[in-house]
Amino acid sequence: MNRPLIFQIGILMIILLIGYFIFSYLNQNNKLIKESISEIENDLRLKNKLLKASQEQNKILGLSYKSSDEKGNIYEINSLSGSIDETDANILFLENVKAKILVFNYGVFFIESDHAKYNKLTLDTHFSDNVNLLYLDHIIDSEDLFLKYIDKEIKISNSVKYKHKENLLEADEVNLDMVTRTSKIYMKDKNKKVKAIIKN
Question: Which of 143, 141, 148 has its CA nearest to residue 176?
């Protein structure tokens, strides 16, 4: 065998060995990266499970609160489930909510919503998502309803639709005084007008 051929075979062997070592090194790094990603994903899954378990542990099923005062007013609120605010034990976050407010000598207001934030001390409540208020034959649908219970005041906002018999109104906000049974219906933008369909 001549020298140049041996030299060429030697160089070829060295190139193949270098290629093999580079491939092995990259393959090993790739496995380490995949293992690290897998560990991170497992950690995230575990944290999510722990968080869900903690939330489930914090959840209370079948909540019901009833309050009355010396004037004969009664406020009752029920929900399928809820949880206590971690920063304030007097605040409850409720789901699938139904409330009834009896104002003495004036009548009963019924409120339903998907969610509510309820203060056990003041009884102030923020009903949210698919809110429905019913008083006699007056119906108001919206996305937010703020009840100041002591003042007997309700502020309704966000996609407000008022129905009374065949009459319809659409507005930005409605302010309702439950004692005097007076209401203010208006738009936030003074240049816009309340939409109304009045049939009687």
Answer: 148
